[in-house]
Amino acid sequence: MTDATAPSSKRLIVPALGGLYASLHDGVETLLRVVAGLALVTHGATKIVDPFGATEMVEGLGFYPGVFWSPLLSATEFFGGILVAIGLLARPAAFAATFVLLVTVWFHWVTVGQGYSGAEKSILWAAIFLFFAVRGGNRHSVDAKIGKEF
Predict the structure, then answer these.
(1) Are 119 and 105 in contact (CB under 8 A)?
(2) CA–CA distance, 75 with 78 (Å, rounded to integer)
(3) Cα–chain-centroid distance for residue 37?
(4) What are the start-end ranges of the E strands in the chain?
(5) Contact at 8 Å (CB) between 54 and 73?
(6) In terms of pTM, does the model score above 0.85?
(7) Which site from 63, 92, 93, 101 is most exposed, i.e. has the minimal number of CB atoms within 10 Å?
(8) Are the C-beta atoms of residues 66 and 111 closer than 8 Å to each other?
(9) CB-CB contact of 59 with 65 (8 Å)
(10) Rounded Cα gap, residues 100 and 42, in angstroms
(11) pLDDT band at 50 (very low <50, low <70, confident <90, very high)
């Protein structure tokens, strides 16, 4: 494996595990991307059927006009989740998801006043999508299959 993140057998406590880690690396990364994307799709599915349903909520967070931001939120969650899951335009879709999730961190932590305990899940999901915004979809993605990525 030529990946810079692949473990070096010389540094492993149990060097024999190096081959296992290397063989699972891309598959596990792909699994995380697909699960994260599908979770975002599931979250956005209720919004996509009523893209203006979150108008008041987004305006309550300071995003005006809500009739612009609410459908954008719906599309980012639903279609962005699909794009991340299949690995097509994975970086920009994951970046948009990261932004949405950072807004939910702000909402839960500051607006609602729940602090870390209320924002914890959003922080974790934002970190996952930030990983794919930086890393891309890997070799098991539509981007890789077409030979182009953002």
Answers:
(1) yes
(2) 5
(3) 6
(4) none
(5) yes
(6) yes
(7) 92
(8) no
(9) yes
(10) 15
(11) very high
